[in-house]
Write a structure and sequence with these properties.
Helix content: 55-70%
Largest sheet: 6 strands, mixed
Radius of gyration: 36 Å
Strand order of the largest sheet: 6-9-10-3-11-12
Shape: elongated
Structural class: alpha/beta
Mean pLDDT: 85
Bound molecules: adenosine-5'-diphosphate, magnesium ion
Number of strands: 12
Distance between the termini: 54 Å
Low-confidence stretches: 1-5
Length: about 575
């Protein structure tokens, strides 16, 4: 387990910000100058008000000095603010950039098994919301904390110089505030957590409701669904009200406490002014300092919850950044040429949650150029066999050999450049037909891409699209039928001229007419390459060199179509069943 997992939450936050600490320090340095007028103005005002009582000879000189200082500090705000913003913004934007790039890198290296288990929505929320919170932390929380600290220090220093006895007030105020914060802290934490939990449950409920809409409609369970979601919305209402109530209680107690002290301090100062111990200017100065302290403390209390949120966001991002299921390719030798001989050498694989192996002590030698079909009941391990051939999952015992070399020791990315996959669900990037077919290839001339589209039996419909090969697909683009999508996927595979071709239920969802067109295209691209097919369509499997019947992760039968049809077994049963249906 990585070191950062064991660190405390504050330590983890520190780890994120520490590479940028120079920018934080620079930012705070300029923030100090930017706000210097605000912090020091009570002193200026006090000194200016007391001037009429001072020595008439030095009065004018002092007036000029104080006046220039005041106006100078106001003007200083402008350059200081620009510099502060420069560093603080570099810090904030830099942190979100680093985290986003880090996340994207990690997402590209995580196994597909990881991705299949984590919803896109959750991953996206991490990448967007959580990073935004961490981005805002230095500008909001750190700056307010710093402001409060300086306001308190300046006030204490001024009071210590002009009326040291006034410090007794702080001696009372500080423990009372700490006690108040203690009292509310635990309660607020619990309430906030309850509220967030309730909110997440509601969100999950609503998104379930939307995805399950067709099922709900079909079973006439609208009322039931609505009640379920309404309960959750009600819960958010109740938890939200409790949260608001507590927040308000805390806010108003803090205000009363601070303002009560401020007023008492003012009354005390006025009393000492009557006695002639301090000047009118000092009374005003103390009052202004106290007002600025209570203002910044209230601000600080407001941004306090940000720290807790940032901690949580970081944990949530770390869940991805430190997820163990990474595919390690770094430093392994690349494959430059693939002939397409795949050997399952006593391979066993069980999924983390599986109670029995999905692939069980498998020995299977697939010669280069051979076409193999996996058939068998659902759950028998067909997809897992393909995932092993692609290196998406790795044997827990035994080895996968590619042209005699252990796949565990190869850079699988370089191997997959020689592999073409056509799956049941074909997804397109938002982009043109041309872009999607040529995806990831470099400098292939248009005519060759068009040839691939023709070979895949896709030209007849691509031609008729509004902009031909330049028509946009994906979000906001044209909708294609299942058969059309399949044929474009085949064109995509063809263009890369793969040595190993994997067809995962590529024809399963098609109607008879598009099946014929797709099958025709498939027959063409299966020539001269190692092909592994998973399908329950007779037309797809019957011409394969070898058909492997699987059950519970083991081979129960193998042979050609004709061999297998001679015996009554699973294969002949499904073939008969589907042939009758078709
Ligand atoms: P098929 O493709 O033949 O339907 P699979 O290879 O998908 O079979 O599944 C084989 C076994 O592994 C099944 O028992 C299935 O429940 C299990 N399995 C498949 N994928 C996963 C997964 N991602 N996590 C846990 N178990 C899985
Ligand atoms: Mg499957």
């Amino acid at each position: 387990m990585s070191e950062s997992r064991r660190r405390s939450p504050v330590g983890q936050l520190y780890a994120v910000y520490s590479p940028h600490r120079k920018d934080i320090l620079r930012g705070l340095f300029f923030l100090f100058f930017q706000n210097s007028y605000v912090w020091l103005s009570p002193i200026f005002i006090a000194r200016l008000i007391d001037l009429p009582e001072s020595d008439p000879q030095t009065r004018m000189a002092r007036f000029l000095v104080w006046g220039c200082l005041m106006l100078g500090l106001i003007l200083l705000n402008f350059p200081a603010s620009c510099l502060r913003s420069r560093y603080m913004s570099r810090l904030a934007r830099g942190i979100s950039r680093d985290l986003r790039v880090g996340l994207a890198q990690q997402l590209q290296q995580l196994t597909l098994l990881y991705h299949s288990k984590h919803s896109v929505g959750r991953l996206q929320s991490k990448a967007i919301r959580d990073i935004e919170i961490l981005e805002a932390l230095p500008g909001q929380f750190v700056a307010v904390l710093f402001n409060t600290a300086v306001a308190v220090l300046v006030a204490i220093a001024a009071i210590a110089v002009r009326a040291p006895k006034g410090l007794i007030f702080f001696a009372v105020l500080v423990p009372v505030s700490v006690a108040l914060r203690r009292y509310f802290h635990k309660r607020m934490q619990v309430t906030t957590q309850q509220y967030r939990h309730s909110f997440e449950t509601m969100n999950a409920g609503i998104s379930d409701m939307i995805t399950m809409m067709p099922v709900t409609r079909a079973h006439a369970l609208e009322g039931f669904e609505l009640n379920r979601v309404t309960d959750r919305i009600q819960d958010v209402f109740r938890k939200g009200r409790r949260f608001d109530w507590l927040m308000n209680l805390f806010g108003t107690s803090s205000w009363v406490l601070l303002t009560f002290f401020q007023a008492s301090f003012l009354l005390g100062a006025v009393y000492f002014c009557f006695l002639g111990r301090i000047s009118v200017g000092d009374v005003l100065m103390f009052n202004a300092f106290f007002a600025s302290i209570s203002g910044s403390v209230l601000n600080l209390l407001n941004v306090m919850p940000m720290l807790a949120k940032a901690r949580e966001s970081l944990c949530s991002i770390n869940e991805i950044l430190h997820a163990p299921d990474r595919e390690e390719n770094h430093g392994k030798p690349a494959v430059s040429e693939v002939s397409g001989n795949l050997l399952y050498d006593g391979v066993t694989y069980s999924y983390p949650e599986g109670d029995r192996p999905a692939v069980d002590n498998m020995y299977l030698d697939i010669k280069s150029g051979e076409s193999i079909a996996f058939v068998g009941p659902s759950g028998c391990g067909k997809s897992s066999m393909l995932a092993l051939a692609l290196g998406y999952i790795r044997p827990q015992s035994g080895r996968m050999l590619l042209d005699g070399a252990d796949m565990g020791k190869l850079d699988l990315r370089s191997y997959r450049k020689h592999v073409g996959v056509v799956a049941q669900d074909v997804v397109f990037f938002s982009g043109t037909v041309l872009y999607n077919v040529a995806y990831g290839t470099n400098g292939i001339p248009r005519e060759k891409i068009a040839d691939a589209i023709k070979l895949a039996n896709a030209w007849e419909f691509v031609e008729k699209l509004p902009d031909g090969m330049e028509t946009k697909l994906g979000e906001g683009g044209v909708e294609l039928s299942g058969g059309q999508r399949q044929r474009l996927a085949i064109a995509r595979a063809l263009l890369r001229d793969p040595k190993v071709l994997i067809l995962d239920e590529a024809t399963s969802a098609l109607d008879v007419e598009s099946e014929m067109l797709v099958q025709d295209a498939l027959d063409r691209i299966m020539r001269d390459r190692t092909t592994i097919v998973v399908s329950h369509r007779l037309s797809t499997v019957r011409h394969c060199d070898r058909i492997i019947v699987l059950d519970e992760g083991r081979i129960v039968q193998e042979g050609t179509h004709d061999d297998l049809m001679e015996t009554r077994n699973f294969y002949s049963r499904i073939i008969r069943a589907t042939s009758v249906a078709a």
